[in-house]
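User: My collaborator sent over this chain with a note saying "see what the structure looks like." That's all I know about it. Can you take a look?
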Amino acid sequence: MNEQQTAGTRIIRWVLGLPFLGFFLIASVVAAGFAGWGFGERTAAERLQDAIPSLLMSLAWGAVAIAGFRLLVGHRLLSWWLACALIIPAYAALHTADVL
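Assistant: Without extra context I'll predict from the sequence alone. Here is the result:
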């Protein structure tokens, strides 16, 4: 492959990767947004316990977003960047537990 084909491939990878990343990160935020929602008076521990499925779903969508983006762009899949998938569900968990 010459340099023009390589540059064209890189551009196409980024054009496909960024919407993929954006869509699944938004899905992660939406899933985390359901954490702690419910009716009635509950303690923070009860809300956190009820929020576990939403938080796990948020973590899964975040991991899919970052891993898929890295694969589409052509980087290694396994890296410390996958730890960034923990940011959204961790924030939602702290918010649900009334820490924030």
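A starting point for your reply to your collaborator: The helical segments are 3-33, 44-50, 52-73, 87-96.
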